[in-house]
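quick q for whoever's on today - can somebody do inverse folding on this one?? i tried earlier but teh output was garbage lol. tokens:
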């Protein structure tokens, strides 16, 4: 499958270095395009290009993680050499591992030990190091400081408090003429982002995970039912109906334009909502997501990794690019430049990082309590597990049955999947 076919599938060639030395290789890397992600990726790749003399080809991919995974699977199944370095989600190593080379022989053990252990471990499959961590994420709560102060409310600690605060301030602001304000926006489209949101609701309310560490399906429990029914009740009250089609950028657009009081999103949005052209610049605070009455503050562990295709015709150069982009120095630059969160714990105490990346302490706290999606225990079946989960949740949010019925159906489907596919 050549590049023109990839383009028709939705990948977009953005940049080709115009300078090539004799004997130079051309290395293609897929980069995400959420917020300033593409620009920051290009800067790092071009710095490597300047250093080595090799060409860089940047290929943008869909914002939706679900769409991106589907494209990757089509491309890799064809054994294409058109992309050498893949940016992959933290839950994909087990799904895609057969298509990537083992990086263990190319990375010093002390370098791996210096990074977050759980993030490095997420990239190991059957003893192979499938990818290198690039940046780490956890879901966070953004809030309008000015509106909370204006109406005399505290930052909510619980989902119950968030619901009450959002209802009260939305009602008061609309009565005063701010008719477009909503209380809370998040990611509700039927895709991987909804799995992240819903897992936060469930885990923070004492409902556990979708599947436990032993592989048992545990999602159908009273706490999970209550958490998802609570979210369904937000639709049309404090959350717009359109959230059922929101991904990260749609929810950020609503919040950043001043049309929402609260927003759940990843840390990348912090630098954007405080950008020079942002209507809410200086008016936003950030904290850990609320908890249920009996639960704990949590956020879904996210993040992206870099993997080298086993079909690459420029393996050595691709490995060198991955080493450079995932290095401590480059991660520091990305943290200062755009707030991307390093996988090196010591950088959170770096004075330059803390000065430029003011939410570093908040994020480190959120990472400590982050909930991990069950990609490790479910392995190659994870994508089906997640798809089945977000479908049941989306149906509940859209008013197609309640959480009790939909989670019971989900439980039966997952148990059947486990029997047939195993994990």
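ok took a stab at it. sequence:
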């Amino acid at each position: 499958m050549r590049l023109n076919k990839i383009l028709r599938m939705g990948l977009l060639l953005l940049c080709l270095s115009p300078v090539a030395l004799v004997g130079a290789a051309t290395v293609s890397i897929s980069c995400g395009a959420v917020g300033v992600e593409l620009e920051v990726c290009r800067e790092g790749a071009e710095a490597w290009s300047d250093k080595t003399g090799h060409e860089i080809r940047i290929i943008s991919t869909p914002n939706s993680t679900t769409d991106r995974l589907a494209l990757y699977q089509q491309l890799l199944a064809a054994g294409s050499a058109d992309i050498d370095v893949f940016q992959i989600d933290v839950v994909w190593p087990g799904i895609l591992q057969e298509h990537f080379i083992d990086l263990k022989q190319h990375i010093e053990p002390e370098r791996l030990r210096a990074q977050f252990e759980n993030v490095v471990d997420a990239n190991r499959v059957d003893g192979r190091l499938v990818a290198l961590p690039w940046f780490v994420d956890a879901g966070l709560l953004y809030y309008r400081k000015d509106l909370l102060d204006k109406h005399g409310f505290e930052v909510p600690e619980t989902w119950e408090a968030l619901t009450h605060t959002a209802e009260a301030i939305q009602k008061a602001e609309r009565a005063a003429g701010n008719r477009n304000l909503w209380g809370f926006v998040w990611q509700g489209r039927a895709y991987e982002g909804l799995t992240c949101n819903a897992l936060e609701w469930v885990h923070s309310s004492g409902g556990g995970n979708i599947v436990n560490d032993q592989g048992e399906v545990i999602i159908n429990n009273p706490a999970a039912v209550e958490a998802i029914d609570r979210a369904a009740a937000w639709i049309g009250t404090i959350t717009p109906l359109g959230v059922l089609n929101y991904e990260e950028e749609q929810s950020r657009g609503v919040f950043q334009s001043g049309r929402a009081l609260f927003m759940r999103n990843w840390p990348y949005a912090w630098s954007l909502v405080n950008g020079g052209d942002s209507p809410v610049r200086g008016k936003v605070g950030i904290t850990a997501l609320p908890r249920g009455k009996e639960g704990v503050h949590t956020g879904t562990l996210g993040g992206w990794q870099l993997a080298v295709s086993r079909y690459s015709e420029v393996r050595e150069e691709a490995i060198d690019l991955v080493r450079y982009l995932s290095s401590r120095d480059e991660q520091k630059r990305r943290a200062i430049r755009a707030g991307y969160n390093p996988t090196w714990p010591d950088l959170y105490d770096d004075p330059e990082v803390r000065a430029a990346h003011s939410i570093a302490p908040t994020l480190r706290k959120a990472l400590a309590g982050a909930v991990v999606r069950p990609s490790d225990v479910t392995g190659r079946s994870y994508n089906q597990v997640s798809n089945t989960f977000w479908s049941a949740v989306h149906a509940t949010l859209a008013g197609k049955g309640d959480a009790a019925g939909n989670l019971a159906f989900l439980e039966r489907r997952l148990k059947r999947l486990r029997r047939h596919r195993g994990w």
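fwiw The CA atoms of residues 89 and 304 lie 5 Å apart. also DSSP finds 19 helices and twelve strands in the chain. so keep that in mind when u check it
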